[in-house]
């Protein structure tokens, strides 16, 4: 009897996002009708390295040299996570078709200036050394996913909506997927496959909450939102935060730590009567919840399900506030829909690497505003 099983089609996805908390890596098999995550590994960042990455988000002394060294450190950290995945699963390097490595975004300004009508003048920059990663793993690496979309006039972000459609889309059912990393982004999946998808950055995710928590408690994040649950929302501060013009721009739009950073928060706090640290944390949590829920209400109004992934899905207080603001929507972690929240973005970059290898588009023009679909990424052979 002839076997109908397909040989494995293995890719690794690596993601270190704007939360700056480390690397998530997954080994994914795409040979079946649905992707299968065979392994998940993480690698943390030292406090010194995290501080350096955060500093590189703004201009500074000798930053080109520092950025190159940071890229090397990141590539070595990526390689360690890859080796952990291979050891964990018993898979040999030669069995993996490619690694998708997003890199660490330190600048994202896709519409920085106009060169000429209809031409891209902005840029996006992710620290990475994919050549070093290929050298250290013996596996082809696909990297630099965003710049091709920017070159085509797009935002270069978010890139995960096409993957969200592949994994979470349901025929005849409108739903939305909210990724809450350092920055939050929303994918709107219409009920009809023929309808255009929408996806965009909502605003801050964990970035401001994590920064404030680290500064005032020494902890890298507010576990379960327990600290935020102890305070009160400060209406004056919330109003200032919510007045940020980015939040009121229509999509396509994208943002990052270029905007939502400690200096921006300090500016919002300036000249206000002193607000207690715990009330600031509560207000930041409410701000993130409202920024996300407002986007769902405005652009995913026919969705009855909101699937939440990323580290924010583990913040109980944030999830409660989202549900409070969206009473007609079932707010649930992506784990309840087949993929744990900390695996989703890494799996998305495994999928994007596969799209590149197969010379298939990885972006959605309706999401990024690019002039059309494009094959994304550059390949660094092992």
Verbal overview:
The chain has 12 helices and 13 strands. The longest helix is centred in the N-terminal third of the chain and has 27 residues, at 63-89. The chain starts with 9 loop residues before the first strand and ends with a strand. The chain folds into 2 domains: 10-157 and 343-380, ATPase, nucleotide binding domain (Nucleotidyltransferase, domain 5, 2-Layer Sandwich), CATH 3.30.420.40; 161-337, Nucleotidyltransferase, domain 5 (2-Layer Sandwich), CATH 3.30.420. Strand 9 and strand 10 (198-204) form a beta hairpin. Helices cover 35% and strands 20% of the residues. The strands form 3 sheets. Strands 3-2-1-4-7-13 form a 6-stranded mixed β-sheet. Strands 10-9-8-11-12 form a 5-stranded mixed β-sheet. The protein has a two-stranded antiparallel ribbon with strand order 5-6. The protein is an alpha/beta fold.
Topology diagram in text:
Elements: E1 10-15, E2 22-29, E3 36-44, H1 47-55, H2 63-89, E4 96-101, E5 104-109, E6 123-127, H3 130-137, E7 141-143, H4 147-151, H5 161-168, E8 175-180, E9 183-189, E10 198-204, H6 207-217, H7 235-242, H8 262-269, H9 277-299, E11 305-309, H10 316-325, E12 330-333, H11 344-357, H12 365-368, E13 378-380
Parallel strand pairs: 1-4, 4-7, 8-11, 11-12
Antiparallel strand pairs: 1-2, 2-3, 5-6, 7-13, 8-9, 9-10
């Amino acid at each position: 009897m002839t076997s109908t099983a397909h040989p494995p089609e293995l890719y690794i996805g690596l993601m270190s996002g704007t939360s700056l908390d480390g690397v998530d890596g997954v080994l994914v098999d795409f040979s079946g009708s649905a992707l299968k995550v065979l392994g998940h590994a993480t690698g943390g960042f030292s406090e010194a390295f995290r501080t350096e990455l955060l500093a590189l988000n703004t201009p500074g002394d000798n930053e080109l040299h520092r950025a190159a060294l940071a890229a090397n450190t990141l590539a070595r950290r990526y390689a360690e996570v890859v080796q952990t995945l291979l050891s964990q699963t018993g898979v040999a390097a030669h069995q993996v078709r490619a690694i998708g490595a997003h890199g660490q975004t330190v600048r994202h300004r896709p519409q920085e200036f106009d060169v000429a009508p209809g031409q891209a003048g902005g840029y996006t920059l992710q620290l990475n050394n994919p050549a070093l990663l290929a050298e250290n793993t013996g596996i082809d690496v696909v990297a630099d996913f965003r710049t091709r979309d920017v070159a085509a006039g797009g935002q270069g972000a978010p890139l995960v909506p096409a993957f969200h459609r592949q994994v979470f889309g349901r025929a005849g059912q409108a739903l939305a997927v909210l990724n809450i990393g350092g920055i939050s982004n929303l994918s709107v999946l219409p009920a009809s496959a023929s309808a255009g998808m929408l996806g965009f950055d909502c605003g801050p995710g964990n970035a401001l909450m994590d920064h404030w928590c680290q500064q005032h408690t020494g902890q890298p994040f507010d576990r379960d939102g327990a600290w935020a649950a102890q305070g009160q929302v400060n209406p004056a501060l919330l109003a200032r935060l919510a007045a940020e013009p980015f939040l009121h721009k229509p999509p396509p739009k994208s943002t990052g730590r270029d905007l939502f950073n400690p200096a921006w928060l300090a500016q919002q706090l300036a000249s206000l009567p002193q607000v207690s640290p715990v009330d600031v944390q509560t207000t930041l949590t409410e701000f993130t919840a409202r920024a996300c829920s407002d986007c769902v209400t405005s652009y995913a109004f026919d969705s009855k399900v909101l699937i939440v992934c990323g580290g924010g899905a583990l913040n109980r207080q944030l999830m409660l506030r989202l549900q409070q603001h969206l009473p007609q929507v079932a707010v649930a972690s992506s784990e309840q829909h087949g993929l744990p929240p900390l695996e989703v973005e890494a799996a998305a970059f495994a999928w994007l690497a596969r799209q590149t290898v197969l010379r298939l588009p990885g972006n959605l023009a309706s999401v990024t505003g690019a002039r059309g679909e494009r094959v994304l990424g550059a390949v660094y052979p092992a």
